Amino acid sequence: MNDSKKIILFDIGGVLIEYGDVFQTVAREQNFAHELIDSTFDKYDREITTGKITPQELYLKCLSENNLEADKEYNFVTSWISDYETIRPTYDLVQELMEIYEVGFLSNIYKGMVEEMISQKVLPHIEEKYRFLSCDIGMQKPDVELYDFVDEKLNLNKGELLFVDDKNENFPPALERGWEVFEFPRKNPEEGARKLKELLL
Q1: How would DSSP label each residue in 143-186?
Q2: Top-level class of domain 7-17+87-200
Q3: What proportion of the chain, given as a percentage, has pLDDT over 70?
Q4: How far apart are CA 103 and CA 126, in angstroms?
Q5: What pTM did the predictor assign?
Q6: Among 27, 44, 125, 163, which residue's CB has the most CB atoms within a 10 Å radius?
Q7: Domain spans, the chain
Q8: Cβ(91)–Cβ(189) under 8 Å?
Q9: For residue 24, what are the CA distances in angstroms to 11, 38, 57, 73?
């Protein structure tokens, strides 16, 4: 076990959940091409990621901007989450790590989704004080201000924080602040979880 570590922050998408098939359910149930919601998401990526609009508002924009006849009361968050798949090796590892370390999230994610995923056991239950979510903070990785925000909240020394993410473009601001980083191999989660376990347990 690495005794210098105090907290481990996990990204969500690509580390704890696989999201390669999102928007398939809404497209099927509401009878429109999933490329339409894909393109709407791309258009409003920063707005939804930083919490300026909700997932349901994104869905309504998709309907309006594409002149789609679909159910405006459709629960888009539930549908979206149903297309996620838990990355079980990481989920199980987080449960083990929580017995020894403080564990949290540092993720670009959308309003209302983490609470729902925790309640459905798609994600492990992480204390709210360690949930650093872009939609709540109003900043997203790799905005340097987001890393400053986390630093200020946690007030740790160099080397006491490990950040696990599958995208190395999110690492430079972390490394500049003295965080340790681990690039999680999204395509080989079993190997990633094994290496993390060796590092930390």
Answers
A1: -HHHHHHHHHHH-PPTTSEEEEES-GGGSHHHHHTT-EEEE--T
A2: alpha beta
A3: 99
A4: 7
A5: 0.96
A6: 163
A7: 7-17+87-200, 24-82
A8: no
A9: 23, 10, 18, 18
Left if phi > 0, otherwise alpha if psi is -120 to 50, otherwise beta: which for 25?
A: alpha
Is the separation of the CB atoms in 130 and 68 below 8 Å?
Answer: no
DSSP bridge pairs for 105: 10, 131
pLDDT tens-place string over residues 10-30: 999 999 999 999 999 999 999
Q: Which of 126, 112, 99 is nearest to 16 (CA)?
A: 126
The dihedrals phi and psi of 165, each to the nearest 5 degrees, come to -145, 155
pLDDT tens sequence across 84-131: 999 999 999 999 999 999 999 999 999 999 999 999 999 999 999 999
Tokens at 146, concatenated = 């987001």
CA of 98: how far to CAs of 12, 51, 58, 101, in Å?
16, 28, 34, 5
